Amino acid sequence: MIALLLAVSFTFLAATLPRCATLIATEFIKRSLAETAANADNPALYQARIYGAVQLALAATDLLMYANHAVNFFLYCATGQKFRLQLCAVLFIVLRQPQLAATSSPFNVGGAVVESSVHRHRRTRRCENVPTDRNMSQKSVQRQAAI
């Protein structure tokens, strides 16, 4: 849990800090632009070049800041064991519903869903520790038999 919090927090800082620095630098550039543009050969061209560079930096840091939100899902998957188990349980329930799979699957052959053994093996290997109704009922029967 601590690894998850640290990963998300440091990623947020790494993705947000450049944006903050760019905004601060933009204010300094705006203030000093009037003074330096007056001394340039072509003040309008100088201002346009600086303005273009600032806009490019703002766009790049915006992209980095928005990428932070996209990376959070992968950080949760990589560092959060509870999140992985819950995600696996949800995917297992969704993949277990034959009505949805039979109607929307491109591999629907005569009303039966064709599933490759590779996909079945991957799904069961990843989700083998996920509690299901069948596992829970078997465990409760074993507990009652032990009593």
- Give the strand order, joined by hyphens, for the main sheet: 1-2
Strand content: under 5%
Q: What is the count of DSSP helices, taking H or I runs of 4+ residues?
A: 6
What string, H for helix and E for strand, traces the elements in order? HHHHEEHH
Tell me the helix content: over 70%
Summarize model confidence as the mean pLDDT: 75
Q: Say how many strands there are.
A: 2
Count of the domains: 2
Shape: rod-shaped
The low-confidence parts are: none
C-alpha Rg, in Å? 28 Å
N- and C-termini, Cα separation: 35 Å
The major β-sheet equals: 2 strands, antiparallel
Structural class per helix/strand content? mainly alpha
3D structure, described in words:
With 147 residues, the protein is mainly alpha-helical. The protein has 2 domains: 2-79; 89-146, no CATH class. Helix content is 83%, strand content 3%. The chain has 6 helices and 2 strands, in the order ααααββαα. A two-stranded antiparallel sheet has the order 1-2. A hairpin with a 2-residue loop joins strand 1 (108-109) and strand 2 (112-113). The protein starts with a helix and ends with a helix. The mean pLDDT is 75.
Quick summary of this structure?
The chain has 147 residues and is mostly helical. The chain contains six helices and two strands. Strands 1-2 form a two-stranded antiparallel ribbon.
Brief descriptors of the model:
rod-shaped; 83% helix; 147 residues
Topology (SSEs and partners):
Elements: H1 2-39, H2 43-79, H3 81-96, H4 98-104, E1 108-109, E2 112-113, H5 117-126, H6 133-146
Antiparallel strand pairs: 1-2
Helix pairs in contact: 1-2
